[in-house]
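Standup notes
- DV: blocked on the single-chain target, sequence here:
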Amino acid sequence: MAVLDAVEKFAVFRVRIILLAVGIFCILFPTTFCDFIPLIVGVSMIIVGAFGVFAGFETKNYKVPEISGIGDSVVLTLLGLVIVISHNASLLLIGVIWGLLGLGKGAKEINTFIFRLLNKENFIFPLVIGILEIIFGLILILEPTEHIAFHVIILGINMVLFSIKDPAQHKKELHQIVKEVL
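- DV (later): unblocked, structure below
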């Protein structure tokens, strides 16, 4: 068991180093990174989607349709293929999808804010993050290709912060880490 723990720690360490390096690259060279976004996003979606399909069948969560993520993973894989195939034209689609995902994250943060406010817990952080996610999401939806370089910088900051975050919070599957960061 100690060997498996050591291998897992090393794998998590590698993922964190890669996230840190890519995050720094996004911050320093956002327009260069924008040229590679369709390829990076498309291939990542294909890999994460395929892994999700495999994991869904491996864990047999298809037996409970309410929790099965296999359909989502199939769609993610297919969308990744479309993005890779339509490389140049897909930046608009990526910007809009990124904006919609930001709105979804913002909505969840607002839900957390309301919950914490009503339970007299610390609520400032989810409120601020929720408002920022919604604003950034709307900006991307309104002008996806014009503002994507700015969002690459935000993505870079997110990757750097995630890579230096408490390692105990990294006890997740690799595809969950990728989904959380992106």
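- Follow-up: DSSP finds seven helices and no strands in the chain.
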